[in-house]
Amino acid sequence: MSAPVEKMTVSLTVNGQSHTVEVEPRLLLVHLLREDLNLTGTHIGCDTSNCGACTVLLDGIQVKSCTLLGVQADGASIETVEGLEQNAQLHPLQEGFWQEHGLQCGFCTPGMLMTAKALLAENPSPTEAEIRRGISGNLCRCTGYVNIVKAIQYGAAKLRGEAGVSTQEAARA
Amino acid sequence: MIPASFRYAAPQSVGEAVDLLAAHADAKVLAGGHSLLPLMKLRLAMPPVLVDINRIPGLDYIREDPQIEQLRVGALARHIDFERSQLIQDRYPLLWDAARGIGDPLVRNRGTLAGAVAHADPAADWPAALLAANASVVATSPRGERIIPLSEFFRAILTTALTPDELVTELRIPFPEPRSGGAYEKLERKVGDYAVIGVGVQLSLNAAGTIAKAGIGLCNAGSTSIRATEAAAYLVGKPPATDYINEAAQLAMQASDPIEDDRGPVDYKRAMVRELTRRALRRALARAEGGRP
Predict the structure, then answer these.
(1) Quick one: which of A153, B47, B156, B205 could link to B179 by a disulfide (CB 3.0–4.6 Å)?
(2) Are residues A78 and A108 in the same domain?
């Protein structure tokens, strides 16, 4: 097709804030977030729908934002990693990743956090097996997942209202 | 990676969607998008028009229809909906097995059963499972609706019996018969990869305990999804004994025609067809005989 494709208007809520942007239909959601809204916390990893680094929540459901068009998010509520911290307080999951050393390079972390948030919203007390199955679409090339699982367990305990005690602190005590 | 330009439409009804398909012969339908969008990003697909059916209300159903004695699956029922469905877990274990092994959790949140069927990738799990289940496709166009048995649907790799103006609006799966069971076995290198080989089985037993009906579908074992008809026909009238299971598995292997790739050489894949058919038959039989897992 030779004629340029007209831009379309997309209105969406991201982390509670309303935005209206004019985008080409081919613009991927992850590019809309990173380039139009300047929210670069959401990472582009493999760009082939495998790695999950670009995971965001679309109306509460974890999705790969590299495999969704921006226009598909019209009218939707999106949550990204930037929305986790509230009033300068880390989200319990972020605290868990901090306390349990749930990251090394940090590239997969935004996607891991968003997947974990959706997982815990559905199942506040997951078993280790359920956590591992839940994050099986998010690849980490550094950690071997052991500390990521602990970090999610820490965040889950804290979200249930239990005191978050990291395994690192427990080992020192 | 950015797809080539296209015009985008998000119709609100099936009628509007099929009118768009009729008006634009090269249009592609966007449902879950987890096969189509990666292909578009790689520019292996460059449709000039994309018809996004996600805004059409009422297409996300999975329900049994006693009048036609079939399970009806709407075009927007996603893999996750099967994984979470008690009805599917209780009555259609073949479909439950298959759903839980597709892609990864993020893929399952978006991908649809109808989309996987329409895409007709021989490496996809649903077509093999649904061939075993003797499913049929409801295709809707501006001319009306027609029902296509899945056994006549897959023509070649990524090629189906659909005409350009037809939309897969529903899949239908026969009610499980009394004393029936199904299972899907998938060998994969890692989560998210396509199957090295997958095998779906659905069968039922008669009052005497011999096999009354059987269906076997093979995933990633040839240039289309394969219905192993000889293997299935062989089992009918046989008691569920090891020798017969082995012979049926051998026949299923002979129906396969895999290619060598980074998932393994041909002989290995053919051996896996035999082994996974055995396992799927054993599990389906156990379920038919009343065993739970």
Answers:
(1) B205
(2) no
